[in-house]
Write a structure and sequence with these properties.
50% helix; 211 residues; globular
Length: 211
Amino acid sequence: MKDFYKKILDNNKEWVETSLAKDPNYFQDLAKGQTPPLLWIGCSDSRVPANEIIGAKPGEVFVHRNIANMVVHTDMNMLSVLDYAVNVLKVKHVLVCGHYGCGGVKAAMGNDSIGIIDNWIRHIKDVYRLHDEYLNSIADETERFNAFVEVNVKEQVFDLAKTSIVQAAWKNGQDLTLHGWVYGLNSGFVTDLNVNISSEKDLDEVYQLRF
């Protein structure tokens, strides 16, 4: 434990030194403020680092993460991040990014009790219930799991579009587009699920073609 803790402190010092060697004003410039064009809503999984996946630098991505990249309308943490991103930072893109092999989605496919997380997984189970006919028609379990990951991302984008924050932004003519991706842990590539929504009209059209 002590060796690991010392290592991460040493890593921080090395990162600072490397960054300053490239640009002596690196941290001074970062401290002046942030104007990221993107809000990333992703999974808490440690294997899905938002900045690294898209090659972004510090200050370029505003990030919210939770189990299975959920957009829950009673989650004040998520809503607060969304509100700040849209109304203060004026981001132009909000991206929901899930990933194949997601433990939260996998857990929602079963009936085992895990603990307090069961309450959170209930929201994911609701997504399965909405699409059980489609998902249950997929015989192969791995393919069904992957399809559920994709379905879950799409539903979170639709839920995002229905938040009062996004609705108000569109009503006010704000340039704001929602997207849905799935990240492949075993490949590093992302899959665009083609749920790119920039208005209420887009939402209606994409929703009709969602599956």
